[in-house]
Amino acid sequence: MAFKSFFTLFLIHICFFASLSYAEDPTFYHDFVVSYITASPLGVPQQVIAINGKFPGPGINVTTNNNVVVNVRNKLDENLLFTWAGIQQRRSSWQDGVLGTNCPIPPKWNWTYNFQVKDQIGSFFYFPSLNLQRASGGYGGFIINNRAVIPIPFATPDGDITILIGDWYTKNHTALRKTLDAGKDLGIPDGVLINGKGPYQYNTTLVPDGIDYETIDVHPGKTYRLRIHNVGVSTTLNFRIQNHNLLLAESEGSYTVQQNYTSLDIHVGQSYSFLLTTDQNASSDYYIVASARFVNESHWKKVTGVGILRYSNSKGKAAGPLPPPPSDEFDKTFSMNQARSIRWNVSASGARPNPQGSFRYGSINVTDVYVLKNKPPVMINGKRRTTLSGNSFVNPATPIRLADQYKLKGVYKLDFPKRPLTGAPRMETSVINGTFRGFIEIILQNNDTKMQSYHVDGYAFFVVGMDYGEWTENSRGTYNKWDGIARSTIQVYPGAWSAILISLDNVGIWNIRTENLDSWYLGQETYIKVVNPEPTNKTELPIPDNALFCGALSKLQKPEDISSAASLTIVQSKVFTLLMIICTLIPIFH
Fold it and tell me: Are 114 and 345 contacting, i.e. CB atoms less than 8 angstroms apart?
């Protein structure tokens, strides 16, 4: 009897300490086995990048402040990194998954990401960040839910649906790389995928037989949250659902002023949440459409994704013409005005109880200004390259953050120009020198003929203005200083500019890049370095124990024990689950 009481007391202590470890910020474990599979989303067999044998990859669904552990097993024949678009990686650019901060995961190797989704909510996605790999798949949705104590600014939806849209080529990423390396354009995509599937056969001339298409099943009289992500290569897509309004509610971690759209242009790398009310009579199924924008639409008709919205009481298949896109071929202001209409919901709470608008960004003094200008591709040293402000970025063999950690010299230059270079373009590892707790204004000037979208890692920035023509100092008079949306990816229209403000409160090395994969691959990116002059774990976490080493530090890399590394996260998860089961059973057997 005494032994039984001692043993019960022992188990209670174990459960108590286990619950302390996990109670405040739970940890969610994921295993990603990344490999090639053969798929035919557009009717042509091709090599795609799958996760756990699936394309697209699994969704990640967590809550504000949760910890996320993702164990990645690289079964590709080339290096791999995952980046988490819009996840701010507070205090830990070590987990950001781009070449400025991380050495790549070699083939047949294992590496584990471990990060916290600190003070964030919203709709995001992840993808492989190296060498156009996203053009072959490997992407998936990433949801961060509100904590229970903070209400969302709309009634709880009856369902939550992730929709991944993107232009698609039947050539894989290695073939697309060869095209770019040869100095050529990628050309017109072969189609648009919706959740990894090709178009419904709405037109027998444009869509061949036997294509597997996406069907979303719904019930009448309900409201669903649709999380739409453009994970494509380089094409803006107009998203719409036949006979239905889309009530915009959130974008990349910020709740928006709620307003209805019949369609919305979603640019490469962008994410939106809509509320869809199933209020139609279901006389037939309804088309879900994602079609190419800002192109010669008569030549790009095949670049249209079509899925099906099916009510449970539907009376037949969808038929007839697709719902039309905006008829603004000769009105370049329509899409921009639509973008300007997207506003921050200043009264809603986000990840914290205080209203989003309590951060009065419009009253903060700007400490630095950078004008980042892109132009059409140019030849530099005999190579076709893209530039930002005259600089075509060269990724160093040793990541910038590792170089700083080990005090290596000559890896990069902290000399990115505040204004575009006036001389010949250059190829350099040139980085922006950010000021910790500064407030930086960045103007993105697009002097190319193609739509561009730009992403900033580590932050949500405030979109304060956009217009056609060249930005000038007088352009600030048009800025929205009250309810400009806070997000991480912004479009810049051809021949136009977009202005953003960033509060540099997150220490680290952070990537600024075009999300258009071809332009990114050819050098249209840089990094911003944000350093606390008084180093402390409160503003930046130490280098992780499992950091990979490469370049000038490759001698520090130890051989990997794959068998033990691959099962680490599974073991941790199962141990915790077992402990919780034991804790549950104690009252029964006591």
Answer: no
d(CA 28, CA 18): 15
pTM (two decimals): 0.92
Buried b or exposed e, range 344-362, using 16+ CB within 10 angstroms? bbeebbbbeeeebeebebe
Burial call 298-334: b when 16+ CB within 10 Å, e when fewer: eebebbbbbbbbbbeebeeebeeebbebbeeeeeeee
pLDDT at 33 (0 to 100):
98
Q: Which structure tokens are listed for 348?
A: 């809603």
* Location of structure tokens 């700083």: 404
**For residue 429, what are the contacts with CB-CB under 8 A and spacing of at least 6?**
393, 394, 395, 396, 400, 411, 412, 413
Task: Walk across the sheet containing 110-116 and list its strands.
Answer: 46-51, 27-39, 67-74, 110-116
Six-digit token pair at 25?
A: 């910020």
State the CB neighbour count (10 A cutoff) for residue 258: 16
Nearest-10 Cα torsion for 389, 391, 394, 398 = -80
Looking at the chain, the number of H-run helices and the number of E-run strands are 7, 33
The one-character DSSP state at 210 is: T
Q: How far is CA 369 from CA 21, 435, 439, 440, in A?
A: 44, 12, 9, 6
Per-residue pLDDT at 357: 86
Q: Which residues of the chain have pLDDT under 70?
A: 1-23, 330, 561-590
Cβ pair 80, 130 in contact under 8 A? yes
* pLDDT for residue 14: 46
Parallel, antiparallel or unpaired: strands 508-514 and 525-530: antiparallel
Please tell me what DSSP assigns to residue 213.
Answer: B
DSSP for 236-260, written as a single string: -EEEEETT--EEEEEETTEEEEEEE
Nearest to 332 by CA among 162, 166, 468: 468
How many angstroms separate the CA atoms of 527 and 459, rounded?
13
By CB atoms closer than 10 A (0-12, 13-18, 19+), residue 221 is exposed
Q: How far is CA 355 from the centre of its chain?
A: 25
What pLDDT is recorded for position 358? 86
DSSP tag of 343: B
Pinpoint the alpha helices (H) of 303-411.
333-340, 400-405
**Whole-number Å distance between alpha carbons of 83 and 81:** 7
The letter for the amino acid at 299 is: H
Contacts 24+ apart (CB under 8 A), 10-17: 11/582, 11/583, 11/586, 12/586, 14/579, 14/582, 15/579, 15/580, 15/582, 15/583, 15/586
- Residue 447: per-residue pLDDT: 97
Q: Which residues of 482-505 are buried (b: 16+ CB within 10 A; e: fewer)?
A: ebbbbbbbbbbbeebbbbbbbbbe
**Predicted pLDDT of residue 5:** 52
Rounded CA-CA distance 129/98 in Å is: 6
Q: pLDDT, tens digit, for every residue of 298-351?
A: 788 899 999 999 999 999 999 999 999 998 876 789 999 999 999 999 999 988
